[in-house]
């Protein structure tokens, strides 16, 4: 829990730094908009850096007006996309943004054509965004309709809407290119982005959209969480599921269409998916995912656009995505909740504990067969080796672990002996093992010769309550000592004979 | 004739359509299994990965020779499937999300590579989207005296490979698509089938990339198979249908690309885009008109059942009216009022039942014929037996059972009525005290 808080704080700090930088920028940037010449902004799709010779300090302190705009716009976009993306991820609709952003293209092209036909400037941004929003909404509606009217599954519905709408968009773009006003190059920026030439007005719009999404996400935090966590339950509680879903999709539409022209189509999908997926490695709490995803989104946008500004010929959209991919890989590896290393470590610890438990029981049982009252007998290593199929390295490592936990003592003549604590623990384990064996024999009708292995698998995870129930079920055995083994014990004596256990 | 004013030149348009058909059918064949395995979006992800593959191959080999480019793109395509699987499996990330992470990241890598090498590569971003199918007849190969566009030759080879794969491994593909665990039990390597499929998807995407662009591959991988899926329940039929639908989409798409913009005052547009739109149009037709699962078929079935139920209700009403007085009739207005229905519906029901010889009408006054009495008897018997059963056996309140029985009576056949009769110990009266009629035809 503490670790989660640390991570959350870190993510928040990253987000806060980004936000502070952004607000400071907002003040310094938006005021002189009219004073600064905007005509000579580098307006290329490929996002070349300002110059081959880099003044790192100049970039990092954001002295360039253009860099400030780009950093401000993309950071806010990353923040908003991360927050919205966390909900779509938890709703298991991560690729909705994919279908949606493709579905905006015909709207953009059609808006351009219609505006042109009506005699106004087709490249007027609000018109294009309106077109994008309308066809995005139609696309989402088509996905829902396909889901409802046919037996096709979600993935097919997404793929159909994505490809058919995009195909229509491409066909319409073919017409746009022939349109009277000549160049329609601006529209292609919706596909590839034009991060490097974001205008202050673009950044402002992105900021407003991001804040709007944040506000909605905060206000409806509980409802959206419930929707993602268990939609049926939410419906049973009387929440308007359809409306909530529509709100969520609306947020995706808004953040997507505004992000499209900033970072382009494919990279917009990345901003919606990657930070949220990365956040999932750090926490199990839905609020946590949202916070961390927002933080990671803002941080990767900030770093990506700075890198792109500082180094020549690195398109900022792609750099933002690559930074967020790097953060994803980092999270996947060292994430504190579901990170691969973390889970691997947990697994190893669990396996180690199981080996130690096996060792304790083996020593105990060998001593038990040797005679009553000899629980603290020294057992030679080679005899232990024959009891279970473990390699001598594994056994040695296990003994070392058990020794560290002061459960066994290593004797100078090469044997192992249980300590006081180890003896108690071994007794408890053997008891659990045998209770389960007895249960299997009496209640599950499993042959005594076969219960050992089955009990082996389950003895490590028996809860005290289960033990108590087993005791009640098997009635008689309420003494603290383990019952006698219901089958012959492997003792690993030199001739490998099996001494029959005493009858219960 | 709509297409009459088109100047179709078979040397050019014929080849364009041929290339489109080849690409569409090659993709659709494989797409069937993607749609069935709920992996449609993997086709999208793999086809996006073509871009970084091409760029990387170019940077490594330094040539625009097509073989290394092809190999590079296919490798990255397979890598997309592998990485998606890994992230899904080891990272416990939702499948869609892991796909999103992988293909967007690879795409970003591709963009960076292209920009770094931009001075040397003429990889037009527009070409990625809609390809240059219109240009395909210009770049030809001559094989054994027969001249064909290069793309057509390549795509034919790909189509042949896919076709062979689908035919040879049809059984394995079917079983591993529907039930991977069962496939493993009966000795089919589902994992190997999966990656073989992914490899072919990548090969198809790369081969089609240049000619028809990214988007048509995605459309043809998903839309024709999805359309076929709505039309049949048999996999073999579905595969065949998807190929036919892909072919139609390609032909209609090209003609549409030439014809439709002309009506709007433009010249022709991108064929690939229109092919995707055509396949979408066919899907919409299938959603509406599919014989069994179509929206209209379902609606009609519902209407028919509702009408049938209503007609039975008319019989029941007339039977109950005549229960005490055998000469009693009901007028049309009375029927309308009791059934709370429209004059048109009641009229329809009366007409149908008159044609079946169950109702006779004299001066707008309706009564049951002998046949009608028989039919109604079974219905009312079912109703009252159910009421009795619900009170007697299911312990329901007598006031609340009428609606339940009203619903059940229409789906209760003779055998079930006998069973109910048995269960309720052959009682003679329902909970409201009304007599339960005997089975028609049985002795009174």
Write the layout of secondary structure elements.
The complex is a heterodimer of chains A (504) and B (444).
Chain A: H1 2-30, H2 56-60, H3 65-90, H4 96-117, H5 125-149, H6 154-176, H7 185-192, H8 200-219, H9 221-229, H10 231-236, H11 241-263, H12 265-279, H13 286-310, H14 316-334, H15 340-370, E1 379-380, H16 381-387, H17 392-404, E2 408-410, E3 415-418, H18 420-443, H19 451-458, H20 464-473, E4 489-490, E5 498-499
Antiparallel strand pairs in A: 1-3, 2-3, 4-5
Chain B: H1 10-36, H2 40-48, H3 50-61, H4 66-90, H5 95-116, H6 125-130, E1 140-143, E2 146-149, H7 150-168, H8 170-178, H9 180-185, H10 190-231, H11 235-263, H12 271-289, H13 295-321, E3 330-331, H14 332-339, H15 343-355, E4 359-362, E5 365-368, H16 370-392, H17 402-408, H18 414-423
Antiparallel strand pairs in B: 1-2, 3-5, 4-5
Considering DSSP H and I runs of 4 or more, what fraction of the residues of chain A is helical? Answer: 55-70%
Q: Please provide the ordered H/E string of secondary-structure elements of chain A.
A: HHHHHHHHHHHHHHHEHHEEHHHEE
CATH architecture term of the largest domain in chain A: Orthogonal Bundle
- CATH class descriptor name of the largest domain in chain A: Mainly Alpha
Strand content bin of chain B: under 5%
| Count of strand segments of chain B | 5
Q: Any idea of the CATH topology of the largest domain in chain A?
A: ABC transporter involved in vitamin B12 uptake, BtuC
Estimated share of beta-strand residues of chain A: under 5%
Number of helices of chain A: 20
Q: What order do the strands of the largest sheet of chain B run in, or round the barrel if closed?
A: 3-5-4
**CATH fold node name of the largest domain in chain B:** ABC transporter involved in vitamin B12 uptake, BtuC
Structural class, from helix and strand content of chain A? mainly alpha
Organism (chain A): Botrimarina hoheduenensis
GO cellular component, one term (chain A): ATP-binding cassette (ABC) transporter complex
Keywords (chain A): Cell membrane, Membrane, Signal, Transmembrane, Transmembrane helix, Transport
GO molecular function, one term (chain A): DNA-binding transcription factor activity
């Amino acid at each position: 829990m503490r670790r989660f808080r640390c991570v959350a704080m870190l993510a928040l700090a990253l987000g806060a730094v980004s936000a502070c930088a952004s607000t400071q920028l907002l003040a310094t940037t938006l005021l002189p908009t009219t004073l600064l010449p905007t005509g000579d902004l580098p307006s290329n799709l490929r996002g070349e850096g300002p110059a081959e010779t880099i003044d790192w300090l100049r970039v990092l302190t954001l002295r360039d007006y253009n860099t400030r705009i780009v950093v401000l716009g993309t950071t806010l976009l990353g923040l908003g996309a991360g927050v919205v993306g966390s909900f779509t991820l938890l709703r298991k609709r991560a690729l909705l943004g994919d279908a949606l952003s493709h579905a905006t293209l015909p709207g953009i092209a059609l808006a351009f054509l219609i505006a042109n036909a009506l005699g106004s400037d087709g490249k007027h941004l609000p018109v294009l965004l309106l077109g994008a929003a309308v066809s995005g909404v139609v696309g989402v509606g088509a996905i829902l309709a396909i889901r409802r009217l046919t037996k096709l599954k979600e993935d097919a519905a997404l793929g159909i809407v994505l490809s058919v709408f995009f195909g229509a968009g491409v066909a319409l773009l073919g017409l746009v290119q022939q349109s009277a006003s000549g160049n329609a190059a601006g529209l292609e920026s919706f596909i590839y982005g034009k991060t490097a030439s974001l205008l202050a007005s673009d950044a402002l719009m992105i900021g407003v959209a991001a804040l709007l999404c944040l506000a909605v996400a905060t206000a409806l935090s509980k409802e959206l969480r419930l929707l993602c966590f268990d939609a049926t339950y939410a419906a049973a509680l009387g929440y308007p599921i359809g409306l909530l879903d529509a709100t969520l999709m609306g947020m995706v539409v808004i953040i997507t269409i505004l992000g499209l022209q900033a970072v382009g189509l494919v990279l917009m999908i990345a901003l919606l998916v990657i930070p949220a997926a990365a956040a999932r490695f750090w926490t199990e709490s839905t609020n946590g995912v949202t916070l961390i995803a927002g933080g990671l989104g803002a941080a990767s946008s900030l770093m990506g656009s700075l890198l792109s500004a500082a180094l020549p010929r690195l398109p900022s959209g792609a750099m933002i995505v690559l930074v967020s991919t790097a953060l994803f890989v980092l999270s996947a590896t060292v994430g504190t909740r579901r990170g691969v290393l973390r889970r691997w470590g947990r697994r190893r610890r669990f396996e180690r504990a199981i080996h130690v438990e096996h060792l304790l029981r083996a020593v105990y049982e060998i001593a038990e067969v040797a005679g009553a009252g000899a629980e603290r007998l020294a057992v030679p290593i080679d005899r232990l080796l024959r009891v279970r199929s473990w390699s001598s390295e594994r056994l040695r490592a296990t003994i070392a672990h058990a020794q560290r936990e002061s459960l066994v003592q290593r004797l100078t003549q090469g044997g192992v002996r249980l300590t006081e604590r180890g003896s108690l623990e071994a007794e408890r384990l053997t008891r659990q093992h045998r209770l389960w064996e007895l249960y299997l024999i009496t209640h599950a009708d499993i042959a005594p010769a076969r219960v050992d292995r089955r009990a082996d698998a389950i003895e490590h995870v028996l809860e005290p309550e289960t033990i108590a129930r087993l005791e009640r079920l098997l009635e008689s055995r309420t003494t603290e000592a383990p019952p006698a083994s219901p089958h012959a014990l492997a003792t690993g004596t030199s001739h490998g004979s099996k001494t029959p256990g005493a009858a219960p | 004739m709509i297409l009459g004013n088109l100047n179709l030149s078979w040397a050019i348009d014929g080849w364009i359509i041929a290339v489109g058909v080849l690409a569409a059918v090659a993709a659709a064949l494989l797409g069937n299994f993607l749609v069935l395995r709920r992996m449609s979006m993997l086709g999208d992800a793999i086809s996006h990965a073509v871009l970084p593959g091409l760029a990387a191959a170019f940077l490594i080999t330094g040539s625009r020779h097509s073989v290394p480019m092809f190999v590079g793109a296919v490798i990255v395509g397979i890598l997309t499937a592998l990485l998606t699987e890994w992230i899904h499996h080891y990272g416990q990330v939702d499948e869609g999300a892991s796909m999103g992470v992988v293909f967007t990241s690879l795409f970003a890598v591709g963009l960076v590579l292209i920009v770094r090498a931009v001075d040397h590569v003429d990889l037009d971003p527009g070409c990625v989207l809609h390809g240059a199918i219109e240009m395909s007849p210009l770049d030809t190969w001559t094989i054994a005296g027969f001249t064909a566009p290069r793309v057509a030759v390549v795509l034919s080879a790909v189509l042949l490979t896919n076709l062979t794969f689908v035919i040879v491994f049809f059984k394995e593909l079917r079983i591993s698509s529907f039930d991977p665990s069962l496939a493993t039990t009966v000795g089919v390597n589902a994992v190997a089938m999966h990656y073989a499929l992914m490899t072919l998807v990548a090969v198809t995407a790369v081969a089609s990339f240049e000619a028809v662009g990214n988007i048509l591959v995605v459309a043809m991988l998903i839309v024709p198979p999805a359309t076929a899926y709505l039309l049949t329940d048999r996999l073999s039929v579905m595969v065949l249908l998807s190929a036919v639908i892909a072919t139609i989409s390609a032909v209609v798409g090209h003609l549409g690309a030439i014809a439709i913009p002309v009506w709007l005052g433009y010249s022709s547009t991108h064929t690939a885009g229109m092919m995707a739109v055509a396949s979408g149009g066919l899907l919409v037709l299938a959603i509406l008109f599919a014989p069994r699962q179509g929206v209209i078929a379902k609606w009609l079935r519902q209407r028919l059942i509702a009408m049938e139920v209503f007609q039975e209700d008319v019989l029941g009403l007339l039977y109950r009216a005549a229960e005490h007085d055998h000469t009693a009739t009901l007028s049309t207005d009375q029927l309308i009022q009791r059934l709370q229905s429209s004059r048109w519906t009641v009229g329809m029901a009366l007409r149908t039942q008159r044609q079946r010889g169950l109702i006779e009408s004299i001066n707008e006054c309706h009564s049951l014929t002998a046949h009608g009495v028989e039919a109604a008897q079974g219905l009312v018997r079912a109703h009252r037996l159910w009421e009795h059963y619900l009170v007697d056996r299911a312990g329901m309140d007598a006031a609340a059972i009428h609606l339940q029985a009203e619903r059940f009576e229409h789906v209760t056949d003779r055998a079930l009525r006998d069973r109910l009769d048995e269960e309720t110990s052959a009682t003679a009266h329902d909970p409201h005290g009304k007599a339960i009629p005997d089975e028609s035809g049985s002795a009174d």
